[in-house]
Specification:
By secondary structure, this protein is of the alpha+beta class. It has one domain. The model has no long low-confidence stretch (mean pLDDT 88). The chain contains three helices and four strands; from the N terminus they run E-E-E-E-H-H-H. A hairpin with an 8-residue loop joins strand 2 and strand 3.
Length: 140
Amino acid sequence: MPNFIIKTHRVGTIYSKPHLFLLNKGMNSGKPQKTPFTNSFVIIFSNEEDCENMYWVTFSMWQSKFWHKNLCGSVIPFLKIDDFRKEFQTKSNEILQDFEQHKKDVKALQLLELKEKQFHENINLINDMRRVILHRYCNK
């Protein structure tokens, strides 16, 4: 199991070890990202491989809306760091028990993300071509 430290991110702090950020306010709480959010937790790892593996664990937890049950607050829901630590440790250990299956799932998620990116690029190209054709048509 990877060793990690979970802290509340402070703006302007620079981390030397591999790390990832997780949003802690709003309905997207738990969303992982490599760059900091204003309201986020930071998870610091001892090596890059653990960071990459846990990125996909946190990504899957966020996509499945795992953190919604832990949100509190009436206007802007937020995630408490103690709840996050407890639930994250438990769920990540559970997910990583079958590490071979985890690696297969990560490869599938990476492929899907790549295909999604290609799809969005194709949509943008189609829209650009549509604008060019309409522009030519209207300027006759």
